[in-house]
Amino acid sequence: MRGGSWRQSSLTGIGVLFGVTLAGLLLLPFFALAISTPASDLLEGATHPLFASALLLSLRTTLTSLSITVVLGTPLAWWLASSSSKTARVIEVLVGLPIVIPPAVVGVALLQTFGREGLLGPALGSVGIALPFTEISVVLAQIVVSAPFFVKAGASAFREVRPDMLIVARTLGASPPVAFFRVALPIALPGLLVGASLAWARALGEFGATLLFAGNMPGRTQTMPLAIFYALESDVRLAIVFSLVLAAVGMLLLVALRFLPALRNFMRGGNA
Amino acid sequence: MTSWQVIVRARRGELDLDVTFEGDEQPIALVGPNGSGKTSVLRAIAGVLDLRDARITVGDTVLEDTSAGVRVPIEERRIGYVPQGFGLFPHLTVLENVEFGLSTGKNPLQSEERSRRALQMLSELNCASLSERSVKHLSGGEKQRIALARSLVLEPAFLLLDEPLAALDATLRRTLRQFLAERLRLFQGPSITVTHDVRDVAALGAQIVALENGRIVQQGPLSLIQQSPATEFLAEFVGAD
To answer: The complex's ipTM?
Structure first.
């Protein structure tokens, strides 16, 4: 018995050690980042001309890509959740492809699609449209890498809506669109918000596909992650300021996601 | 006296549904083993299913007639439908659930009138005190009443209840069975209640329509089924304690 309990407690000890090691590995870099720069350097970095332009470009492109993702992704998520067809199951698996494929590959694939020599390139070129290395290409890259997170979360959120509830809504006089907007959408809303937050975070951090498909041109296609890459070669303080801003945004999102359900309850009057 | 008729032929996966029955304002108890098509019949009347061949009339209104190409949309049928599990909207309060049907359609009521009618209905069902509660935390019996209130407040032309007492424990069942019977008497319109319990049939004073494998195997008053049940299932159903 004594041997058994010794073995058990040493196993527990090893488990704790492993866990603490990984947690440290995950958190230490952020701690180092936070303490690495004196406030004066931060100020200098934040007033650097590259900072404002990359920040604005990142905000503008990610809010655009998020809006497009939500508008196009909500009906897709709804269809995936409510259809029992084989096609829907196949599409659902395929939609997740950009999650598991490296962003650099997505960048090459986008070039092969929209590039001058790509699948749609000649057709777009004939009407005078060249997408690569423009702000539109930044948005496109962000949509491709981030939308799967929204669609996946959205589909599982819509699965919370029992078909019976929609039937009841219809018998209570609601047309199909009214039943969707007043019953299905509000029930799925928390899950959709989580999906939108994940998609936004992913778009904000997008680097590889953007670099290949949109390039790294200050003021035009240089988003914050690309600006970090660029600044590391010239001014490490600038890179750190960018990194701190992105880390802070991520932190805020994490906290928001954690407290989302509580906030929702609170806004509903906190009724039991 | 409102009379009605239901003729429904449809294919639902493995089930080949083919039923014809009619009635007036006397409650109907739809009974049968699991998978016999009871819920499908209710959904067909509500207008949810694509039917191969159907004619459904309530009073002078034709809700569905496949040969004449008539199919009234669900939202215009004036059907009160209470599904298994009640189908309450979890994101709304009790009052908002009951008000829902008063705010839809071509002529939604003003907000004050909605609350007035919804509260009136809730007090008739002895649950006005629940009006501000979220429906998520109601007991089974409370949910049943709210679902009933939500349907009845629209004064439906036809009431369809899918196992309204199934989710309740034995004591509550007894109380709510009496309550339901009382409400259906007050409702004074046609109704179909799906049930697995012969005591529900007796309390509601209902005519039985017995379904097996999508076909009606017997129909009539409880006494008739008790005297000569047509199938093994029915013998067990009426013989059950």
So the answer is: 0.93
